[in-house]
Amino acid sequence: MFMMRRETSLSDKRITVRRDGEERVIEAPVGAGFLSLLKMHGFPLVCCNGKGTCGRCRILFEGQRAPLPVAADRIAFSAEELRQGYRLACMHRVQGDCTVRVEFVESRTVEAVTDHGGGIRDGSAGAAKDSGAANGGMPGRSAEYLIAVDLGTTTVAMQAVAADSLRELRRGGRLRILGEYSCMNPQRRWGSDVISRLQAAERGEAGELAEAVRDVLEEGVEQLCGELGGRPESIWLAGNTSMEHLLMELDTRTLGRYPFTPVCLQEMCLTGRQGKDGVSGQEIRLLPGISAFVGADITAGLLACGFAECEDGECRLFIDLGTNGEMAIGRGDRLICTAAAAGPAFEGGAGVNVPGTDMIALLAEMLEGGVIDETGLLQEPFFDTGWQKGELRITQQDIRGLQMAKAAVCAGVELLMEAMGTDASRIDKVFLAGGFGYFLDVEKAARIGLFPPQLAGRVTAVGNTSLLGACLYGGEESLREKAEAMCRRAEVLNLAEVPGFEQKYLERLNF
Ligand code: FES
């Protein structure tokens, strides 16, 4: 009996592999990893051996729906490439017959990983990869550059950008990205959420938590310097308030409990400790934050979206969707920020490993098809078993997770508008940030009520604004001063203390 089941589940699938005009068929069992399979069949690759950090194991799924992208795919490929079917071979396993085109990147170029979010300051500036044409094919070699770091709870991303292109950016030029590096945040081993890490710090493991991140920062800086030659002019890091506190080994006890008071929200400098000379011999400067829940990553995002220099009369809204939905509204000199707990719904679904963007699209489809009603309730015959879409089964619990997250964000947006004394009809621009925002189908998000429907036509999905903001902050002193002034004048709205939040939240639970 056991043998029969095993034979059925491991029946070989046909993988048609294409490369350089040649085609061959490999047979492999369900569950075989694409990277090891391809290496075993004569497609050698020097790579990070499946850590998902080097971005060299590119494959393109042809002629059929590619597997859902995982976080490493989303860092390695642009939205357009993901739509075309590009994935990292090391992140996926054989599920059925398929055709893949092997596009392994053999040499150590700095083009491997990307998630740049340029082109958003007033809609005029842009980001471009350095083609290397001016440097004999070596992207960025001998250029003067600075390094920006986005220290996220889940991932650490770094970009080296040409210093001269930063200076040109404000005159309508394009940002030249010379090299990139990314990896998962190693603090994940203490827990994927911030609270577990704050608890670990309180248990006396603060030093290890900080060292773990310093190690990957050093690795990233060394890799970029190795590719580009020389040393960066400076290194600028933006992270949420907890990540920056953990990196600096600041006391986090007041950060994890009411009234959630940070030790420091000013610009900080990571220099040497215990005889060391900073990370990789370089100082790293940390951008200032606004509050315990609106950190330096949001300062960077707001800077990238022009909030430090809001034109009089223009009203802008910024929404960064992750585990926390951070939001800000700006008009003239006034800036009001808030954050709403969104849970895991926007970063991989609650019970299923579905990226939040896909979950939103699926929910819109379920609503339109009558699979769920306006309250989010699964209709018969799906009520007990959930709704099956391909290999995914969406349950009532998955739906509720996203419903609560979108209600918190929508209620937060409405309260921000009220605090600013305005309404949706008078918002000029809406910037939707975060890896999530970059892939979001704005129409579908409006359909499920992620934000007030009147805003849909004014939403721009801007992707990772933290890196671009850190570049801008580091690249120009005048912008640095404006960003610091913006942080000082920012008002913070604590949603839990705003009368009417709960009522609004409950009202926005429906689709
Ligand atoms: S092997 Fe490095 S990203 Fe896949």
UniProtKB/TrEMBL annotation:
Compositional bias segments (type: Low complexity): 122-133
PROSITE patterns xref list: 2FE2S_FER_2
Native species: Eisenbergiella porci
InterPro entries reported in the protein's UniProt record: 2Fe-2S_ferredoxin-like_sf, 2Fe-2S_ferredoxin-type, Beta-grasp_dom_sf, Corrinoid_activation_enz, Raco-like_middle, Raco-like_middle_sf, RACo_C
UniProt-listed Pfam families: RACo_C_ter, Raco_middle
Molecular function per GO: iron-sulfur cluster binding
CDD domains given in the database record: fer2
Spans through the membrane: none
Name listed for the protein in its UniProt record: DUF4445 domain-containing protein
Domain annotation 2Fe-2S ferredoxin-type: ranges: 13-108
SUPFAM superfamilies named in the record: 2Fe-2S ferredoxin-like (SSF54292)
Chain spans, region Disordered: 115-135
